[in-house]
Amino acid sequence: MHRLIYLFSLLLSFHSVAFQVQPMVAELAPSGSNAQQTIRVMNNSSASLAIELTAFDLKITPSGEEQLTTNDADFFILPMTTIIAPGKSQSILIRYVGDPILAASKSYRIGVDQVMIDTGESNQSGVGIATSFRTLFTVVPEGATAKLVIEQKQQQQEGLWKVRLKNEGNKLLRLSKSTWFIEQHDDTMSLAGDELSRALSGKLLLPHSSREVLLKVPKQFKAEQSQLKVQF
User: Fold this and answer.
1) What dihedral angle (degrees, nearest 10) is formed by the CA atoms of 188, 205, 32, 38?
2) What are the chain's domains?
3) What are 110-159's pLDDT values in tens digits?
């Protein structure tokens, strides 16, 4: 298992150097000039890079599993496919053209997929999918707000809690942008930033939805004896 994790880390490191996408997270308005975002794809490799872009609806089950469904109607993407020369970058326009009247924010993944094609630069041929990025795009109506409720927490095992969260608001919650405070008698701790991201199994909570997350905590903290607060 450790070897697999190490190899996966090496692959991620290689891909992040050869092929980059910015930004990975964006908020759009339902209409007007703020309903669009330009993303930049950078080809840092020594070979031409062919990519294609696809929009997906983002759903999250109560257990925390992401479900993606292709959505060809809500976005205008230009270009949807392109070939980027070595060492060059390409700007791509992403414009929301879906329902302009939203009661709650709506989140999508914009997939940026490397397509393996024969560009004449090597002896390899054929078509297949290689590196993929899944950016997060959220369309937010004016005045939308999130409201987090901690419904339940329980001890999953030593050093690990299962926490059930609910978003009673109408805006996506990015849990990794919060600070978590744990208090047990005279012992207190807080988790934020990268430390929280490493401790938390799930990072997103959609509007008007509930989900479970796993939280890694020091072994001395017991779920039934502790108070948990989350601050944004």
Assistant:
1) 80
2) 21-139 (2.60.40.10), 148-231 (2.60.40)
3) 999 999 876 666 554 455 547 899 999 999 999 999 999 999 999 999 99
